[in-house]
Design brief:
The complex is a heterodimer. By secondary structure, chain A is an all-alpha fold. In chain A, about 80% of the residues lie in helices and about 0% in strands. Chain B folds into two domains: about 210 residues, Rossmann fold; about 60 residues, Alpha-Beta Plaits (2-Layer Sandwich). The chains are: A mainly alpha, B alpha/beta.
Chain lengths: ~280, ~300
């Protein structure tokens, strides 16, 4: 057991001995809390009549307030918006080893390289789940508080809400695994960060949007990682904003996300991790 | 007390594309001695050491510790301690957390971290981020890493680079004491003069090939010795040496005569009635024989 437990413990020690994890956690929490809080206040205000729906210029808002799924939608911001944070943490944890040449002491301490990469994947899965909880404190914690203020039921007594919360934690954990995979696939730290930001913030939303134009592309588009993640979580602003887009089942979404992570890690192992460390 | 293992390189070769960095290298490194692994920059020293440690995979051949490849060692850090020349640190970690990570990975007690930092003289900087370390401090931290598992074998790549004179003096004593305890100590350097005070054996490579291996003293005989002689009346001395048919050149401190025996030169001067005020055998410089080896590439 020590053969894998020790490297896993070492990977945790690596993550928690630099500042990155708590900087990402703070930014994630602030971002999600602001977004979830703001939208909960807007929709809650409209639903309770505190804000006249006429004064909300967006046409969709009136329609949205009619949906009973308002709290889940807000809660899911933790992953639907926050997923970039575990990806970044995972990618930086891996590319940092290349950049700072810490692969040398790492492989000297654990010469079986596959074991190291496996340990990193496990550790980042757990820390990604932790980031999921941080995001949920932002989205559920702040969102529910504000819903309560507007007398909108925050649905916290509802088992479905807690199942959603669990799936959000799982999604965030899987995103961190994808980050590790990306990091071994693209060991250059700068390139990795650019890819994460460009893909999650720009390329993928565009692709998902464009894929909804025809049925065939929609069938492909639902396998995009962001779409799979939303399918796993089961509620997202994106799916509501583009109705008619086909989605995967919850379990399919989870498997697709996991497949992305493992595939990237496996290929990365071959193209960079196994290479000579010079 | 940990005991050293024999390091054995057997026909190890590494090619990068068309370039052969290390070519069919075979030698052994014995416990209880400090072995200098010498060669000019680019000779393939670092590649050889990285192959030994499983970081670079050899194109052919093997490198083993007591018969085991590095990756097959049951407790690598407790068997072999290595400090390689690259600064392998995350600048945001403290020395203590840096070492702590690898102590955890290798299943070593956390108390070793403070102990090795004490040994290398970094205890006062244990909780300082490594990013602010000087080159000499980084070298010491690299050395501290190699000592974490109290290993019987030490493999150090250019450990003296960047150390201040005090640090150099310290590491020389340190290497000798490690070997005296029965450990195997392999130290690379591109300068013989850097390590000649502390090494017992030398392995010299040039252009990826072995050019010499043996005790340090075996380098001594490499260059034909010469005699330095001078006289207040140098012209008379020149005439005498010419008459005796000896080859010589004129140097700053006298005439350099291409014979090994000072007595022979003294006799010629005495017989010619020339007063001699300098007469000695030129010490065969280890550094010169080292340079002759690595530049000529000739094997002995």
């Amino acid at each position: 057991m020590n053969l894998i437990l020790r490297p896993v413990a070492a990977e945790f020690a690596k993550i928690f001995s630099t500042r990155l994890w708590w900087i990402l956690a703070i930014v994630l929490f602030s971002y999600i809390a602001l977004l979830a809080g703001g939208l909960a206040a807007l929709f809650g205000g409209v639903a309770s009549g505190a804000i006249s729906s006429n004064s909300v210029s967006t046409g969709g808002a009136t329609g949205l307030t009619g949906l009973g799924s308002l709290p889940p939608l807000i809660y899911s911001f933790a992953s639907s918006v926050g997923y970039v944070f575990p990806v970044l943490l995972g990618a930086l944890a891996t590319t940092g080893e290349f950049r700072h040449q810490t692969l040398t002491p790492t492989f000297l301490a654990t010469p079986r390289r596959g074991r190291v990469l496996g340990a990193k994947t496990i550790a980042l899965f757990v820390v990604g789940a932790g980031l999921g909880i941080v995001g949920l404190v932002g989205s559920v914690g702040v969102g529910a508080l504000i819903f309560g203020g507007f007398d909108v039921d925050p649905l916290l007594a509802d088992g479905d809400t807690w199942a959603l919360i669990g799936r959000i934690v799982l999604a965030m954990a899987l995103w961190a695994v994808i980050g590790v995979g990306l990091g071994v696939l693209v060991p250059s730290q700068v390139a990795s960060i650019v890819i994460v930001l460009a893909f999650t913030q720009f390329v993928e939303p565009l692709l998902r949007f464009a894929s909804t134009f025809t049925e065939i592309t929609a069938d492909i588009g639902k396998f995009l990682p962001g779409a799979a993640s939303d399918a796993l979580v089961g509620a997202s602003f994106f799916t509501l904003a583009s109705p008619g887009g086909s989605t995967l089942e919850i379990w399919q979404g989870g498997l697709v996300l996991l497949a992305y992570g493992l595939l990237a890690t496996g290929i990365g192992y071959l193209v960079s991790w196994k290479r000579d460390v010079t | 007390m940990p005991t050293g293992a024999v390091i054995e390189f057997r026909n190890i070769t590494k090619t990068f594309g068309h370039v052969t960095a290390v070519n069919d290298l075979s030698f052994t490194v014995e416990p209880g001695r400090v072995t200098g692994f010498l060669g000019p920059n680019g000779a393939g020293k670092t590649t050889t050491l990285r192959m030994l440690l499983g970081l670079v995979s050899p194109t052919s051949g093997t490198a083993t510790f007591g018969g085991l490849r590095y990756r097959d060692l049951p407790r690598p850090l407790a068997t072999v301690g290595a400090a390689l020349e690259a600064a392998s640190f995350h600048p945001g970690r403290t020395a203590s957390s840096h070492l702590g990570v690898y102590a955890v990975a290798a299943g070593l007690p956390r108390t070793r971290v403070a102990e090795v930092l004490q040994v290398v003289g970094l205890a006062a900087h244990a909780n300082q981020r490594v990013g602010g370390y000087s080159l000499g401090m980084r070298q010491r931290l690299g050395l501290a890493y190699s000592l974490l598992g109290d290993p019987g074998v030490l493999v150090l790549d250019e450990p003296i680079n960047g150390l201040d004179p005090e640090g150099i003096k310290w590491i020389r004593g340190f290497l000798s004491s490690m070997a005296a305890e029965g450990r195997t100590v392999l130290v690379s350097s591109h300068l013989l003069s850097e390590v000649q005070q502390s090494v017992d054996d030398v392995i010299i490579i040039a252009k990826g090939e072995l050019v010499h291996s043996g005790p340090l003293s075996s380098l001594d005989t490499n260059i034909a010795p010469q005699v330095i002689v001078d006289s207040p009346d140098r012209d008379a001395l020149v005439a005498a040496l010419t008459a005796a048919g000896l080859q010589f050149t004129s140097g700053r401190t006298g005439l350099i005569v291409a014979v090994p025996d000072p007595g022979q030169v003294g006799h010629i001067a005495f017989a010619a009635g020339v007063e001699v005020n300098v007469l000695h055998r030129q010490k065969a410089g280890l550094e010169e024989s080292f340079l002759a080896l690595v530049e000529g590439g000739d094997s002995l």
